[in-house]
Design brief:
Its cofactor is NAD(+); Co(2+); Zn(2+). The protein is of the alpha/beta class. The protein has 2 domains: about 170 residues, 3-Layer(aba) Sandwich (Rossmann fold); about 180 residues, Up-down Bundle (Dehydroquinate synthase-like, alpha domain), CATH 1.20.1090.10. Helix content is about 45%, strand content about 20%. A hairpin with a 6-residue loop joins strand 1 and strand 2. Helix 5 runs parallel beside helix 6, helix 6 packs antiparallel against helix 7 and helix 6 runs parallel beside helix 11. It binds nicotinamide-adenine-dinucleotide (NAD), the ligand O=C(O)C(=O)C[C@@H](O)[C@H](O)[C@H](O)COP(=O)(O)O and zinc ion (ZN). Ligand LNCXM5UN binds next to loops.
Length: about 350
């Protein structure tokens, strides 16, 4: 069992990582919430595996519950889902002091978190992340939101959960596709902050090997994210490092209508592409992109940005909507070398060479 504290003043909370924690959730929730009602927001896949156990446990602990189960997938992280959720919360008469639980992957965490941030101007919520991506990244730090057709995460808020409960055993039911996908963000953490962790990842070849070391993987990523968020909760500087590979990733996801690449896949492609560009311009130690590419390939992630399949002008137009853009500047996240990242002011011209990398 491991516990991490995210120190954000009155918005502080803890992350609990424990095998089998799902069986003890009602008891843990009782410690932090003395109200009557709990709304669980989840998706159909996760609900089928874990919904009834959680709901029944909470009912046995004396809570009145509502389960809002939505279709699985990125298309659900849409603005138009919100009224459907609000309607059900209203029917349930959830009040401002009562609790929302996000039970699922990053899609549910972001969407339910934003519903919590906006319903009645803010209802407390907790994160029970069930995908690898959500356990290492999206459940921590309070970035919640939804996608628009014109761009990813373009509507949202910074709204911290009251607690994050991580049960690594829940990953046993995750598909191979989404296990791999989460590794895109895991590799990101090694790239931006921890060369030793990156080297450790290079020694792991199979899902089984990774599951043998899952506590180290989860703890290392959560700890890096916690430290970065503590330093810059509102994403004005240091936190932008967590966006390594994401300017290209988000543009690619948007361009392909959230249907071709899952987020971690797009991040893998984005990290390799930006590092190739950066090497070409002399900002990154030569050979770094190849090393990231090799690790991504080793775990089965895509690494090639197939420019013949996309229109560069359209991709660049989407990038200009990136939330990191301030004034006339784009903020690009680059590596000096594996483990050392920084933010650099650039113009959109930085990406002109994308067709030739
Ligand atoms: N807020 C943040 O800081 C942050 C960080 C990274 C990514 N994100 C966002 O997270 C989203 C991607 O999250 P994701 O990859 O978890 O996608 P997801 O929520 O769609 O989950 C992936 C798939 O796995 C299924 N699933 C989840 N847990 C399962 C389990 N334990 N057993 C069986 N099936 C399970 C889901 O039903 C879904 O089909 C993207 O929208 C991305 O933008 C947000
Ligand atoms: O928490 C952060 O900050 C991140 O950037 C984490 C990213 O992995 C994540 O994809 C996040 O949702 C991106 O946020 P955005 O602000 O670029 O939309
Ligand atoms: Zn991400």
């Amino acid at each position: 069992m491991a516990e991490l504290h995210v120190g954000l003043g009155k918005n502080s909370y803890t992350i609990l990582i424990e095998n089998g924690l799902r069986h003890r959730l009602p008891e843990e929730i009782k410690k932090i919430y003395g109200g009557k009602k709990i709304a669980i927001i989840t998706d159909h896949n996760v609900n089928a595996h874990y919904g009834s156990q959680l709901e029944e446990g909470l009912q046995s602990a004396g809570y009145e519950t509502l389960v809002v189960a939505l279709p699985a997938g990125e298309q659900t992280k849409d603005f138009q889902m919100l009224p459907l959720i609000y309607e059900q919360l209203l029917d349930f008469q959830l009040n401002r002091s009562e609790l929302i639980i996000a039970l699922g992957g990053g899609v549910i965490g972001d969407l339910a978190g934003f519903a919590a941030a906006s319903f009645l101007r803010g209802v407390p919520f907790i994160q029970i992340p069930t995908s690898l991506l959500a356990q290492v990244d999206s459940s921590i730090g309070g970035k919640v939101g939804v996608d628009l057709a014109r761009g990813k995460n373009l509507v949202g808020a910074f709204y911290q959960p009251k607690k994050v409960f991580i049960d690594p055993e829940m990953l046993n039911t995750l598909s191979d596709h989404f296990f791999r996908d989460g590794l895109g963000e895991v590799i990101k953490y090694g790239c931006i902050k921890d060369a030793e962790f990156f080297s450790f990842l290079q020694t792991l070849h199979t899902r089984e090997e990774m599951m043998e070391h899952i506590e180290r993987i989860l703890y290392t990523c959560c700890d890096i994210k916690r430290r970065v968020v503590e330093e810059d909760e509102k994403d004005t500087g240091e936190r932008m490092l967590l966006n390594f590979g994401h300017t290209i990733a988000h543009a690619l996801e948007t361009y392909t209508n959230y249907a071709k690449y899952s987020h971690g896949e797009a991040v893998a492609i984005g990290m390799v592409a930006i590092t190739r560009l950066s090497e070409k311009k002399g900002f990154t130690q030569p050979g770094t992109a190849a090393v990231i590419e090799a690790l991504a390939k080793q775990v089965g992630l895509p690494t090639e940005l197939h420019m013949e399949e996309v229109d560069l002008e359209s991709l660049l137009a989407i990038m200009t909507l990136d939330k990191k853009n301030l004034d006339d500047h784009l903020k690009v996240i680059l590596l000096k070398e594996i483990g050392i990242s920084y933010v650099q002011d650039e113009t959109i011209a930085f990406f002109d060479e994308l067709e030739n990398i």
